[in-house]
Specification:
With 515 residues, the protein is α/β, with parallel strands linked by helices. The chain has 19 helices and 19 strands. Strands 11-12-14-15-16-17-18-19 form an eight-stranded mixed beta barrel, surrounded by four helices. The protein is elongated, with a radius of gyration of 32 Å. The termini are far apart. The structure holds ligand C2E and magnesium ion (2 copies). The site of one magnesium ion (MG) has 4 residues, from loops.
Length: 515
């Protein structure tokens, strides 16, 4: 009797032995020196000729190590390895408990969704090792800031979810949120690097903002996005507008599936013009959703949703095929050959079979690879740069053109740029828009143009709306332009007319502002 286990267990053991002659199971025991261990114990009874018990034989093995390993596994299943914080599973457990408690005690539960601002920049610039240490340090600061009864969990990446149970006055939530902002944003010193990061926090409260853990987390996440949008380094409570947006999001998601089946997606085409001779040399395909009630929905409203749920993969496949088919149709009508630019999503880029999908679209439509241009963004290729570089090389060797869309808004890592086998840089429209009024944007625009020239890349400016912008771009030596000044994105039949009239006037400059 080691005293380590409850008295009734011993009685149960002896009962079993007297009834059946044996017992086996786990037991906590202690060594003579007082240290405890867990054993696997079998007890057998030995009887003499008269049938009386003469001996009990106990055989045991020390299973402490196995028990420790088991406990470790159970722990690991519920904790994050990097920060040792509870993971999402344990958070869910505790959140469910806290909600039950809150219901009984008539109090609130707060959920805070935290995301470090621009963590990826630190991670990319200083490396994963320092990124990991930063996360650990931030995790410690968060843990030290909240109350002992609160749960701080790591959801993965630079995302943390904090659960505050038993909230009686919601004022405490503001106080804790403010303290968290302050704690996380104090400078970090990691391996000799002084690093500053801030954080954005979204808050949802039970019962007002949701009845179960999943909804509360989702709504806190939506509020966090809003906090990012309004400038980062702040906290926001979930609101009714966010709820409406979340519902709209769900409605779009539901209808989008139907849209694909009902052929409600269509492509608009926007010409790209050579600035030297005013000829149409290319066209960008731009996706639209022709909604039976809402009319033409621009891609910004549904592509992010399609990226989130993966629908962008079949949609993108359709876009590729349709754009290639259309360009081949124009070629067969005898128009001068132009290049069809197709936007690729980062999600498509992550698909292993992207190369095959592109080749299949070209084969099926008979378009020469040089008639296709893929528009990629820096963010898309940076996600897995090495894999992206090798895929881009294969595509380039195959004859497909590659251009870097929205250039200047992403990481613009020059060391990578050198390794991407691209043909063209597309100056983002935000720089073009203000190039004639803001000296900084003018400087960025002309820098991109001269950089392109030095790297032997073509440069196209997008979003050109005014004659002043055009004059500036020409003066800086930009190669091509695309924008409302020449033409808005238009339907294929209108584009055909545009090509026809350009042929008649031998590529003379046309203004066509009808969408
Ligand atoms: P983007 O590739 O940078 O496309 C340029 C956007 O600028 C288009 O918006 C175009 O209509 C707009 N634009 C063109 N000229 C002007 C101008 O002079 N002034 C102004 N203010 N805007 C101009 P749109 O069609 O709404 O597309 C938005 C974004 O959606 C595109 O940006 C692209 O990233 C994405 N997108 C469009 N089609 C597809 C697609 O088929 N697949 C994928 N993955 N993304 C697409
Ligand atoms: Mg584009
Ligand atoms: Mg762009």
């Amino acid at each position: 009797y080691s005293g380590l286990m409850e008295e009734p267990l011993y009685r149960f053991v002896w009962h079993s032995i007297s009834e059946t002659g044996r017992w086996q199971g786990e037991m906590a025991n202690s060594h003579k020196d007082g240290t405890s261990y867990v054993e696997w114990l079998s007890i057998h009874t030995l009887k003499d000729e008269l049938g009386l018990v003469s001996h009990y034989i106990a055989i045991f093995s020390d299973i402490s190590e196995r028990k420790t390993a088991e406990a470790r596994l159970v722990y690991m299943a519920k904790h994050d390895v990097l920060t040792d914080l509870p993971n999402r599973i344990l958070l869910q457990d505790r959140l469910t408990q806290a909600i039950i408690q809150a219901e009984l005690g008539k109090c609130n539960v707060a959920v805070m969704f935290m995301n470090l601002d621009r963590f990826k920049v630190v991670n990319d610039a200083l490396g994963h090792l320092i990124g990991d240490k930063l996360l650990q340090e931030a995790a410690n600061r968060i843990r030290e800031t909240v109350r002992a009864c609160d749960t701080v969990s790591r959801q993965g990446g630079d995302e943390f979810v904090i659960m505050l149970p038993n909230v009686i006055q919601t004022g405490i939530v503001d106080t804790i949120a403010l303290e968290l902002l302050k704690a996380v944003s104090a400078p970090y010193l990691i391996d000799g690097n002084e690093i500053e990061v801030t954080t954005s926090i979204g808050v949802s409260i039970y019962p007002g903002h949701g009845q179960d853990g999943d909804v509360l987390i989702k709504h806190a996440d939506a509020a966090m996005y809003y906090a990012k949008k309004v400038g980062r380094n702040n906290y926001q409570f979930f609101t009714r507008e966010m709820r409406e947006r979340a519902q709209e999001h769900m409605a779009i998601e539901k209808n989008l599936r139907r849209a694909v089946e009902r052929n409600e997606l269509c492509l608009y085409y926007q010409p790209q013009v050579d600035l030297k001779n005013g000829k149409i040399i290319g066209v960008e395909s731009l996706l639209r959703w022709n909604h039976p009630q809402s009319g033409m929905i621009p891609p910004g409203q549904f592509i992010p949703i399609a990226e989130e749920n993966g629908m962008i993969v079949p949609i993108g496949k359709w876009v590729l095929l349709e754009a290639c088919r259309q360009n081949q149709a124009w070629r067969e009508m005898g128009f001068p050959e132009i290049t069809m630019a197709v936007n690729l999503s980062v999600v498509q880029f992550r698909q292993k079979d992207l190369g095959e999908v592109i080749v299949a679209a070209l084969h099926k439509t008979g378009l020469n690879p040089s008639g296709l241009e893929l528009e990629i963004t820096e963010g898309a290729v940076m996600q897995d740069a090495e894999a992206a570089i090798s895929l881009l090389h294969v595509l380039k060797d195959y004859g497909v053109n590659l251009s870097m869309d929205d250039f200047g808004t992403g990481y613009s890592s020059l060391s990578y740029l050198k390794r991407f086998p691209i043909n063209k840089l597309k100056i983002d429209q935000s720089f073009v828009r203000d190039a004639t009024i803001d000296p900084d944007d003018a400087a960025i625009t002309s820098t991109i143009i001269s950089m392109g020239r030095n790297l032997k890349l073509k440069v196209i400016a997008e979003g050109v709306e005014t004659a002043e912008q055009l004059a500036f771009l020409k003066q800086q030596g930009c190669d091509e332009m695309q924008g409302y000044l020449f033409s808005r994105p238009i339907l294929a039949e209108n584009f055909t007319r545009l090509l026809a009239s350009a042929r008649e006037s031998d590529g003379q400059w046309h203004y066509d502002n009808q969408e």
